[in-house]
Amino acid sequence: MTDTERTPHKSQEFESVLTQSASTVASFDGDNKSTLEKIRHFLHSSPAAVPLIVLFLSLLIFAVLVGSKFFTPFALTLILQQVAIVGIVGAAQTLVILTAGIDLSVGAIMVLTSVVMGQFTFRYGLPAEVAIACGLALGAFCGFINGVLVSYVKLPPFIVTLGTWQIFLATTYIYSNNETIRAQEIEQNAPLLQFFGQKVNLGGGALFTYGVFAMILLIALLWYVLNYTAWGRHLYAIGDDPEAAQLSGVRTKRVLISVYVLAGLICGLAGWAQIGRNGSVSPQIGQFANIESITAVVIGGMSLFGGRGSILGMLFGALIVGVFSFGMRMYGTDVQWTYMMIGVLIIAAVAVDQWIRKAAS
Fold first, then answer.
1. CB under 8 Å to 207, separation ≥6 — which residues?
2. Measured distance CA(81)–CA(20) in Å, rounded
3. CA 160, CA 169: separation in Å to the nearest integer?
């Protein structure tokens, strides 16, 4: 028999300490949250909830101020027609902001691609189909330039797109000689350019344009991609923490370039829809789509810090702006009051986003 077997086992010092320690199971305070904290956590997990609530409240307010004529099918579909372009450009802006970036050049890309579509058709005599394809390709190329400068040259997205915004606008004016192609010429010689402006009557005075259908289909597609594909999850990961995303195997540079390329392509689609909306091709129309898209994104609950938000929220944000603009015009107020209200909504949306973000901390 060994010495160890002969001698009795002696408890070590730490064992005596353990016998005196608490034996209760650790508990968390998840069930003891106040109602306000539960609301904040719900809003954090559902980023589109706040703009949806604001949209319903806006409709109710103008229903009281304007009356039943605000809820006519014609009035409601007219709001959709007015926000179609902003919704398409806002979809492009959403992709960039999810990566914690911002794209100030989306409006300039939209105008440039629309001008190229018109000029290629009427200056060079190309078929409208070819001109549209060239415009879409140019939009993707403009996005590629932004993506390379942001991902490989490591320049801040704000600075990059501020510079390319000026470059693309200047290119538009120089190339077009600041000329406008009239709607009558397009209607007679290249009606395909006005495709998204064609209207469909669904009965009861509800008029939808193909531009509205394009916006809805685009947002539905991007919603699926962002929520159910690896590429969509990578966008959120990069926006939340790019270094952690790269360490986990995400090719951040490639994803960033693909985001900006896709955003440029969507802006090209918006340029085509813009021709249909206005009928003509003009370098003067749509220059401030960048500000309008950022407004829709911010009011829609998208975090400018990246990694959080919903493209449905952007749609609701665009509709909120459309409801306020149309409702206050029907009420008879001056347009400056509309700008003031939208400015208040922007500040309120950022304040609410800061409050909701504390739920994750």
1. 74, 77, 78, 81, 199, 200, 201
2. 72
3. 14
Positive or negative, the Cα torsion across 50, 52, 58, 61? negative
Whether 26 has a pLDDT exceeding 70, the answer reads no
Tokens of 51: 């703009």
CA torsion angle for 157, 162, 164, 169 (degrees, to 10)? 150
CA angle 172, 285, 314 (to 5 degrees): 110
Separation between Cα atoms, residue 230 and residue 220, nearest integer Å:
17
Residue type, 178: N
Q: Supply the DSSP string of 300-350, one letter for each residue.
A: TT--TTSS---HHHHHHHHHHHHHHHHHHHHHT--HHHHHHHHHHHHHHHH
Q: What letter represents residue 173's amino acid?
A: Y
φ, ψ (nearest 5 deg) of residue 76 = -70, -40
In angstroms, rounded to a whole number, what is the distance separating the alpha carbons of residues 13 and 312?
A: 61
pTM, entire model: 0.86
Tokens of 146: 């932004």
Residue 146's nearest CA partner among 125, 162, 129 is 162
Predicted confidence (pLDDT) per residue in 176-234, tens digit: 998 999 999 999 999 999 999 999 988 777 889 999 999 999 999 999 999 999 999 99
